[in-house]
């Protein structure tokens, strides 16, 4: 069994266990992601400079602080997002309790972009965590230093039974898309996104 089959099965089991559904788990993972960004600023700046010649100021503002603020916003709003939502009841159901309870989808595939390789990879991850999902992160191979950094760092900060990072290029992405995912998040051109959507069914 290849890593793909084994890894996807592991993450599916992680989701099925119900651990991602609790507010405590989501809060813990988002807090860990904020720590990752805070504790590795120099490494992130170095990787983005090597990949895209981004200066430290641009990386701090458009990649690190932007992503960190997204995570903080999610933390501040998480309880409200997960609470049952009241609905207008028809007359025949006046005595019933009627509400909408949002549920996580399951396993999410996040395919990152090369031009904002941190922000456009981790911001969707923040959404996936906030919604109680597990996720596979596929960073862009066109920004290899940032991709390598995410491969090294994310498993140190996030729950390995619920989140995984897969490096590689078009071949790895195409193979990933042969597996069923509950949600796919892709940032990029229609020329690449359309075949990916077709492959995903």
TrEMBL record:
Entry GO CC: cytoplasm
Any matching Pfam family: Aldedh
Domain Aldehyde dehydrogenase: 10-194
Keyword annotations from UniProtKB, A to Z: Oxidoreductase
Keyword Metal-binding among UniProt keywords: no
Domain of life from the UniProt record: Eukaryota
Gene3D superfamilies: Aldehyde Dehydrogenase, Chain A, domain 1 (3.40.605.10)
GO biological process: aldehyde metabolic process
UniProt GO MF annotations: 3-chloroallyl aldehyde dehydrogenase activity; aldehyde dehydrogenase (NAD+) activity
Family: Belongs to the aldehyde dehydrogenase family.
Protein name per its UniProtKB record: Aldehyde dehydrogenase family 3 member B1-like protein
Provenance organism: Callorhinchus milii
């Amino acid at each position: 069994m290849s890593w793909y089959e084994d890894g996807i099965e592991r993450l599916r089991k992680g989701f099925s266990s119900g651990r991602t559904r609790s507010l405590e788990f989501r809060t813990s993972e988002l807090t860990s992601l904020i720590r990752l960004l805070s504790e590795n600023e120099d490494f992130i700046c170095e990787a983005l400079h090597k990949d895209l010649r981004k200066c430290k100021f641009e990386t701090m503002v458009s990649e690190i602080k932007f992503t960190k603020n997204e995570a903080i916003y999610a933390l501040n709003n998480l309880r409200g997002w997960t609470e049952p939502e009241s609905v207008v009841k028809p007359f025949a159901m006046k005595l019933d309790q009627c509400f909408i309870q949002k549920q996580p989808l399951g396993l999410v595939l996040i395919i990152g972009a090369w031009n904002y390789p941190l922000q456009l990879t981790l911001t969707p991850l923040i959404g996936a965590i906030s919604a109680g999902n597990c996720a596979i992160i596929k960073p862009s191979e066109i920004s290899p230093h940032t991709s390598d950094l995410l491969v090294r760092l994310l498993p140190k900060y996030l729950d390995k039974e619920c989140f995984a990072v897969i490096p590689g290029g078009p071949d790895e992405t195409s193979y990933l898309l042969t597996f069923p995912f509950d949600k796919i998040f892709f940032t990029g051109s229609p020329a690449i996104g359309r075949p990916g959507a077709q492959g995903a069914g």
